[in-house]
Design goal:
4 helices, about 70% helix
């Protein structure tokens, strides 16, 4: 069996983080676009968005947090 690629590992970690919610995973994958900085920021923002009731709304909130934080790195 072939080993997982880095892209597959990244996407699998996102799917796991969003509790296997495929809609939330797709939102995150589309936004993160395999960017390691965005992934790290997303992980942190997702942890902060615990008050959201569903993985999808939590993902959307986390993505907004990443968008707000990215200018700090430019």
């Amino acid at each position: 069996m072939a080993e997982l690629t880095d892209q597959q590992k990244l996407r699998l970690s996102i799917l796991s983080l969003v509790q296997n919610d495929t809609a939330a995973a797709q939102e995150a994958i589309d936004y993160i676009a395999d960017d390691p900085l965005k992934l790290e920021l997303f992980n942190r923002q997702y942890a902060l968005a615990q008050a959201e009731q569903t993985p999808l709304t939590r993902t959307i909130k986390a993505i907004q947090g990443v968008k707000d934080a990215l200018p700090l790195f430019q």
